[in-house]
Task: structure prediction
Amino acid sequence: MFALTPRLTLRPGWFEDAPALAQAIGHETVVNRLARAPWPYTSEDAETFLSLPRGATEPRFVIVERSGAHRLIGGIGLHRADNGDHELGYWLTPDAWGRGYATEAGRAVIDIARHALPLTRLTAYHHADNPTSGTVLRKLGFVETGRSQRWSLARGGMVASVDFALDLDAQVARTDAAMPIAA
Result:
């Protein structure tokens, strides 16, 4: 699957993306906000990630900024959580923060989940010390469902987290146009 938003291309990551992926994610401030990424993050970690299998309802994308050099600036996708939920996860390289890219990419992935996949609900969470991610999730229509402790590989321990859910069957009042998607 691919998705185009006004400023971004969401596409599968390719093995050739490993150096750009490692450079984009390879910031302690990014990796510390994620559950399964190691620190330090190496090109070998990027290669391993890009070679992971994914299920039919687990799209995983790199986020490419279309202006200028078409630079890889992040990642976003859905994966099956241990409890069976389909969970949204995302990250952006630090110089892409604060531009609305996470919300823009998130809307595209939610549109894919709602219209191209047999899903009715998504979950997400953020570490409690990263409230900006909660702001993004709320903009996407997620509602807070509770608090939990989640493992962070980079931090080497459990981290206080805020849990969210989104009912995909609910009508969502939106002012922006639907994003074009291709499967």
User: Anything to note?
Assistant: The longest helix spans residues 101-115. Residues 173-177 have pLDDT under 50 and may be disordered. The radius of gyration is 15 Å.
